[in-house]
């Protein structure tokens, strides 16, 4: 399976976020292949001419692709959780403003961060399940 196909699937499953692109996901997946190799004790490589993810001379199996996708999800949710905790995070002093029929809601940045942390934790739990079923 090609890295671009996997990254496109991830992009769509995240509901096309504006803060990442298919190309940036593909670049991160190339890096995460090393983590995948460590977790599964395999030697997956990205073919430099076709950009296919290979296990030696054969194509990677769908279970390993699912694990790679879950690794990216953990990275994405953890990154977003950290971004809301920085100094540039959403101001938590105002909950809702209404003026001239326009209503704006601002949420506490800690709640945003907690939501992303919860999603990352859930993805980690799912990764553990995928790893256990892969090794059986």
Structure description:
- With 136 residues, the chain is mainly alpha-helical.
- The protein is built from four helices and five strands; from the N terminus they run ααβββαββα.
- The chain has helices at 3-13, 22-40, 62-85, 109-135, and strands spanning 44-46, 53-55, 58-59, 96-99, 102-105.
- Strands 1-2-3 form a three-stranded antiparallel sheet, covered by helices on one side. A two-stranded antiparallel ribbon has the order 4-5.
- A hairpin with a 6-residue loop joins strand 1 (44-46) and strand 2 (53-55).
- Helix 2 (22-40) packs across helix 3 (62-85) and helix 3 (62-85) runs antiparallel to helix 4.
- The two termini are 23 Å apart.
Question: What structural class results from the helix and strand content?
Answer: mainly alpha
- Span of the ends, CA to CA: 23 Å
Task: Kindly report the spatial arrangement of strands forming the biggest sheet.
Answer: 1-2-3
Instruction: Compute the number of helices.
Output: 4
Globular, elongated, flat, extended or rod-shaped: what is the shape?
elongated
Rg over C-alpha atoms, rounded to the nearest angstrom: 18 Å
* Main β-sheet description: 3 strands, antiparallel
Helix coverage percent of residues?
Answer: 55-70%
Mean pLDDT: 87
Low-confidence stretches: none
Number of distinct beta strands: 5
Order of helices and strands: HHEEEHEEH
Strand residue percentage: 5-15%
């Amino acid at each position: 399976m090609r890295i671009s196909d996997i990254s496109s699937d991830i992009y769509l499953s995240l509901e096309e976020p504006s803060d990442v692109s298919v190309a940036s996901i593909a670049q991160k997946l190339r890096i995460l292949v090393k983590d995948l190799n460590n977790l599964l004790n395999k030697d997956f490589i990205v073919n430099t001419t076709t950009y296919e993810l290979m296990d030696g001379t054969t194509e990677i199996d769908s279970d390993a692709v699912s694990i790679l996708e879950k690794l990216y999800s953990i990275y994405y949710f953890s990154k977003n959780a950290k971004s809301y905790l920085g100094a540039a995070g959403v101001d938590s002093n105002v909950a809702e403003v209404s003026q001239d029929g326009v209503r704006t809601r601002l949420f506490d940045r800690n709640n945003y961060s907690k939501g992303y942390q919860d999603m990352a934790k859930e993805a980690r739990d799912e990764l553990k399940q995928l790893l256990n079923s892969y090794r059986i």
